[in-house]
Design goal:
mainly alpha
């Protein structure tokens, strides 16, 4: 909350600041972003792989697809929202 207040006090646009902080935080949305990048990005990854819920190859294939989806959402939808807010 302090970073949001500081950014607003410095004159940053609210939507840009929200998207930046959402991507940089350790909230559930950020955890899903990080977990889709690599098999060692979160604490639950070794449990998922060790228990046999996912193979390493399957993990990387799904991670690639989810990374493309995340880039599309954050890049296209987020940038349009920022442009529309100005």
């Amino acid at each position: 909350m302090r970073f949001l207040r500081a950014g607003l006090a410095l004159g940053a646009p609210l939507l840009c600041l929200d998207l930046l902080l959402a991507g940089a935080s350790s909230s559930s949305s950020s955890s899903s972003l990080m977990m889709s990048l690599t098999h060692g990005a979160t604490d639950t990854s070794p449990i998922i792989l060790g228990a046999g819920y996912a193979s390493m190859e399957g993990w990387w294939v799904i991670s690639f697809v989810m990374s493309v989806v995340n880039l599309a959402v954050w890049g296209i939808v987020g940038s349009r929202a920022v442009i529309d807010s100005d």
